[in-house]
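re: ur question from yesterday

yeah so i grabbed the chain u mentioned. its 105 aa long if i counted rite. heres the sequnce exactly as i have it in my notes:
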Amino acid sequence: IAALVQAHEKYAGGETQILYVDDNLYIMQRTGYGDKPGLVYVLNNHGDAWNGTTVNTRWQNSNFIPVAWWSKSDRYRPYNQQTNAEGSGQFYAAPRGFAIYTPAG
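ran it thru and got these structure tokens back, copy pasting raw so excuse formatting
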């Protein structure tokens, strides 16, 4: 939980925008403001598998690194992700877990 609080304090600035939502997956972004670069937050309600999808973020051609994540059943670090020229990228979280990604650099 400490990593979640630290990620929020360090990266979560700007507007909140929902990028995707269904019964098992919620993805949002904080757009960044001032010294807080923003983030992508993924919440996976699926009980037995990693879950994610492609979403359109505000960041074009950007590398994303996971800065916080948690799942009771799967503690593996999520993979870094990349957005394309349109800002589209794939973001995932472990079963019944979450992941927070932030643009690198």
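noticed a couple things. The CA atoms of residues 64 and 81 lie 5 Å apart. also The two ends are 24 Å apart (CA to CA).
anyway ttyl
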